[in-house]
Design brief:
171 residues, two-stranded antiparallel sheet, 8 helices, 56% helix, globular
Length: 171
């Protein structure tokens, strides 16, 4: 099995596309300017560690739920050996802050700031792509799923907190 040929968590490769999507979707994505500023200043270390088997395309439509409980995952076509941040990105689009904290605690493996930043970035890129695709094919539920991923209650606070921390570090 090949590694991640699409470089899903490579910020340097995907930054311009994310900014373009944010610009195009500014009318429907609240806080688009703040998110764009975060993307511009995001500079996690590129992933170059040990590879792990990852699903590669986790988002709401690939997670099966039965009566409110996780039941399974579908569409394993993007499975590859790569950066865990690729799959961990789903935690930022599927869970609120409290559930995300529980998810990461249960995950059990160490999570560093750079991995979480790549995961957050991947989550944003995926959500923007889902919003655009939902618009293009007139799929309102898919559009809403992408928008919900961007609008997670703490998304704007995460970005603002990171920007505030950067400003304090600079000054």
């Amino acid at each position: 099995m090949l590694g991640d040929q699409l470089r899903r968590t490579d910020v340097s490769q995907r930054r311009e596309r994310a900014l373009q999507h944010l610009d195009e979707l500014a009318a429907v994505v609240p806080d688009a300017p703040e998110l764009a500023e975060w993307v511009c200043h995001l500079a996690p270390e590129p992933w170059c560690g040990k590879g792990y088997w990852v699903h590669g395309d986790l988002y709401a439509r690939h997670v099966l739920v039965d009566e409110g409980r996780f039941a399974g995952l579908i569409d394993w076509g993007d499975t590859h050996h790569g950066d865990r941040a690729t799959d961990l990105s789903a935690a930022f689009s599927l869970f609120d802050e409290a559930d995300r904290a529980r998810f990461f605690a249960a995950y059990g493996a160490p999570l560093d700031d750079d991995m979480l930043a790549r995961a957050r970035f991947r989550s944003l890129c995926s959500a923007l792509a889902i919003i655009r695709y939902g618009q293009a094919v007139d799929d309102a539920p898919l559009f809403r799923a992408g928008l919900a991923a961007v609008l997670q209650p703490c998304a704007a606070r995460l970005v603002a907190h990171q920007l505030q921390g950067r400003d304090h570090a600079d000054g």
